[in-house]
Amino acid sequence: MTEIVIFGLVWIALSLAADLGLSQIKSHTMYFIISRQGHLAEDAFNFLAAFLIPVAIFVALFLVYTLIRFRASNGDAVRSRQQTVQNKLFVTVWVALSFALNILFWLHPTAADLETMFRRDFLANNRHDLVVDVTARQWEWIFSLPQYHITQAVNRQGLDALTLPVGRRVEFVLRSYDPFHSYDVQAAVIHSFWVPAFGIKEDVVPGETRYEFVTPTRTASYATNPMVRVQCAEVCGPGHAWMEAPLSVVSGPAFDAWVKREQKRQQG
Amino acid sequence: MEQPVGVEPSAVWPPRRMMPPILRGAFWAFIGFVLGDLATIAVDPFQGHPLVTEISALFGWAMAVIGWVLGVGAWEGVVLPLAGFSEPWAEPTDMRRYFQFSVDHKVIGIQYLVSSTATFFIAGGLAMAIRYELMQPYLHFFRYPDQYLTAVGIHGTLMMFSVATVALLGGLGNYFVPLMIGAKGTVFPRLSGIGHWLVPAGVATIILSPLLGYWTTGWRGYEPLASQDPGGIVFYYLGVFALTLSSLFVSLNLTVTIIFNRARGLTWARLPLFAWGMIAVSILNLIWLPEIQMTFVMGLLDRLVPMNLFNGVGNPLSYLSMFWLFGHPEVYIIVLPAFALWNEIIPVMAQKSLFARSGAIIGILFVMILSGLVWAHHMFTNMRYSEMFPFSFFTEMISIPTGFAFMAAIGTLWRARFRVSTPGLLILMSMFNFLIGGITGVFLADPPINLQVHDTFFVVAHFHYTIIGGMVFSWVAAMYYWLPKLSGRLYSEFWGKALAIVIFIGFNGAFSQMFLLGLHGMNRWVPAYPAYLQPMNYEVSLFAFLLGLGFLGHLIHISWAWRSGPRSPENPWHGRTLEWLTASPPPPHNFDGEVLVRRGFYLYDSDQPAGVVLPESTPDPAR
Ligand code: HEM
Ligand SMILES: [Cu+2]
Ligand SMILES: [Cu+2]
């Protein structure tokens, strides 16, 4: 009995301390997140962590506890005094708790978040989005903004780069093919469209068109935080590592100015 | 390791003066390759008349593997007997029998252990090269990015198909399952015998794959990238085919052996935990290895014909699903034996009855069943939200039976007097590592989180925690635990524990930081990355080198102890399973008599032994 009390108290104390620590850093657990979808992921991460940390501490503490309290004083084989092979209470609590936790996790965050994502991405809710056509080729991201007649957004060096206005929903239209291939534009592989700071990732698969919706929540850029970039996350051949493009999230007026510049650049 | 065997010296094979079997195998492999290759080139010449094309390499390879397997001894051991020649065939009794085809499950087990250990260090050397490259954010060690990606692919493929899948099943399984069930041998010894020699064939195929061109897909061979990759990918398919065939043979043999060759009194209710683990893994192998083999055959045909099965004209996602249908069960093929080992070794070290034994077994069986229902959690970035529901549900649920392994171990350790020997310590470490792997798996099972960390170093850390942390640590623990049985000798507790602590620090130092790298935006399969990730990568590499040294230390220590450690007592741990009822190392037919099991092996409530060896009533019908 004393053993249980000691163990229990240490466990509770450590778990509380760890969860307190988690609550201190919870806006940084995914480092730098600037989109609604990303915050959903980060909240889910923190929610799960708050429960899973005590679980992990329970087992880890038990292993340490074994090394301290339950170790044999020497290497001789002496039968343990205690030989319990069954303890209904312990097994029932263990099984019940693991079911309860898993069902909880599935309802929240999993099912709840999927409902939220489903609702947000529902077409009827997405009337005035900024459409960005994203073409993945080996090895380049090509961004075009058909609403603004921008066929390929590039920065001053002529490299693909994208700028988005803060607070406005963006609809990414994702395709994988190679418009610059000399004879076979369909020679394409799977890429994965990832913006670390947005917390979104979607594979871009040859032969399919996919949509991804995202609302940036604050201004930032690749220069201020390198997580603000478009990065290919699925291996796509030797150039995979370099298949990235800088991204900026700017204010509305700054976005308009950027659009003007891009349009001008396009006209030559 | 020499044992007397009741055969006349004159009947010892090889009877005549001939090449050592391995050389003979290599010779016939070479002849086979040349014949198969040239014959294909003759019927199907290619523009420019190269001597080797992808198609001719395929036929050459098939002939080479056949030549190799026959050359190392399957000709005398399998083909001649099948054809009705009653050639007096007996294996040599000295070291030579480890270097040729064998039908002795103990010899086969050691062959598998040696092959997968060697492969572990080859693939581990590649890991060191990968980590060295990643110390800088740009290409500085590898010359080309596809060279780096090939190194990653060979590392992963070898580790998965010829170490993680093979060491515990082909190695420890072949050696110990018959001993632990009181059998004198396996049911299909020739199958396992051939099985082993497919491992060097497969490993060599994969190591030599760059000869046909660097391939870039990593161990999953994703389409359509694979079908437009350089030719090396052909050898990836073929090498994996040989390796999976090897595990398939062993699985068939061990399943049948466990079903039919158990000693008297060894009911299913008394079957040792390790045997439960082995039969569960074997069933998973029997179901899923043919599936991945057919997938790779389709991949190969898609490339060689070509058939457009898996590109934009066909459907790339079919390949992904077919790969992970096997791929997820594969991860449990790797880890179930580790769960079994925990609960095999803990009661012995504690001299305490196994707690909730049926729970531990039910856990293994339910994991085995559920593992076929979760594959698409590797493809959340390819799914509609509605499709994510069932897959994240089953994925979260699988942690419940997984937890049963912990429940049994914790119940057993509670208020025990646990001997913290080297194997005992390594088992506790393995439990800790797997705990981290499993907990992070629950995060991955949640789609919004997964969409962020999928294909990043977070996943890399997760699966290394489960595989190195869970399986490899348990493997090392089992090597120390069974070393007295394998060799009759003891190791040094000081060095065993010191090295265990070294790999624990190296492992956790390296892989825990990879979780952070992943969360911070580091994606996989990159020889170059944004510079802000460099400091942490540098540190990870340092810990990784420490880990590599630690494993090397274990290898040296175990090899030393195996050959010249101090003599071990008969049953140093006071284990109660049947392998401890016989000499160390065991005689050719395992037991000098008939084994009778009287009670469960994990009951320490009295001093009564679980099994006894009775004097033989009827002479053993020679197999
Ligand atoms: C509690 C149990 C587990 C859960 C909930 C779990 C969950 C997951 C999930 C959701 C992924 C997909 C991550 C992604 O790519 O986005 C994953 C990947 C992976 N897991 Fe687990 N896992 C568990 C146990 C294991 C075990 C036991 C092993 C191996 C022994 C393992 C090995 C792997 C491997 C190899 C991958 C990634 C493969 C790749 O992309 O190359 N996992 N796991
Ligand atoms: Cu890529
Ligand atoms: Cu999986």
Describe the protein in words:
The complex is a heterodimer of chains A (268) and B (623). Chain A starts with a helix and ends with a helix. Chain A has helices at 2-25, 36-69, 88-121, 252-267, and strands spanning 130-137, 140-144, 162-165, 170-176, 191-195, 200-204, 210-214, 220-221, 229-232, 244-250. In chain A, 35% of the residues are buried. Chain A folds into two domains: 2-70 and 88-121; 130-267, Cupredoxins -  blue copper proteins (Immunoglobulin-like), CATH 2.60.40. Chain A is an alpha+beta fold. In chain A, strand 5 and strand 6 form a beta hairpin. In chain A, the strands form two sheets. In chain A, strands 3, 5, 6, 8, 9 and 10 form a six-stranded mixed beta sheet that branches. Chain A has a four-stranded mixed beta sheet with strand order 2-1-4-7, with no helix packed on it. The longest helix of chain A is centred in the N-terminal third of the chain and has 34 residues, at 36-69. Chain B is mainly alpha-helical and 623 residues long. Chain B has two domains: 19-85, no CATH class; 102-564, Cytochrome c oxidase-like, subunit I domain (Cytochrome C Oxidase, Chain A, Up-down Bundle), CATH 1.20.210. Chain B contains 18 helices and two strands. Chain B has helices at residues 21-43, 54-82, 105-133, 145-164, 167-180, 189-207, 225-228, 232-260, 273-304, 316-350, 357-370, 385-397, 399-413, 422-444, 447-453, 457-487, 493-519, 534-564, and strands at 594-597, 611-614. In chain B, helix 4 runs antiparallel to helix 6, helix 5 packs antiparallel against helix 9 and helix 9 (273-304) runs antiparallel to helix 10 (316-350). Chain B is globular, with a radius of gyration of 24 Å. The model of chain B is unreliable at 1-12 (pLDDT under 50). Chains A and B meet through helix 2, helix 3, strand 6 and strand 9 of A and helix 4, helix 10, helix 12, helix 13 and helix 14 of B. One copper (II) ion (CU) binds at residues 328, 331, 374, 377-378 of chain B. One copper (II) ion (CU) binds at residues 191, 232, 234-236, 240, 243 of chain A.
